[in-house]
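During the reporting period, our protein records have gained a structure token line. A sample record is set out beneath this paragraph:
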Amino acid sequence: PESVIGKSTSGNDIKAFHFGKGKTELMFIGGIHGGYSANTSLVAFEMIDWLKKNPSIVPENLTVTIIPVMNPDGLKKVTGTTDRFTTEQINKSSEIQITGRFNGAGVDLNRNFDCEWQSVGTWQNREVSGGESVFSEPESQAIRDYVTKNNPKGIVTWYSAEGSVYPSACKGEIMPETSELANL
């Protein structure tokens, strides 16, 4: 089933798709950078399509939750939609794609979480907003609230252009569980 876990700055739905009914939840997040990394949302939508066709692949003890577009405002700037799209819908203008990295308030959502938060960060030699405070943006609040309520066992956030897997780190510290998940 599909649920809405929050609204974006511009009022667009932040949707979650759930597969399986187990007590252990694994969560996947795409589109944190909206249209700038539209490919991460495409991967998420492809995984949703695959799980819809193959629901029995999810073990009984597991629930898989996929949030394909954490930044629907940014995705809409680049593709014209907040839902499933094709590569042909992606605006190829680098200027448009860059604006699609940010939410409707111009915040880089990647920088709005509670790990080494700063109001101003740097991305590609330019200053970007981390928001007015930690979790000031409704998109990051939606993720925080969902995670707090549901306590998933593991969370994978898709980023693009690297072709690598990284464990998350805060203040230079990597939790052993995070390294284990990255190594898997």
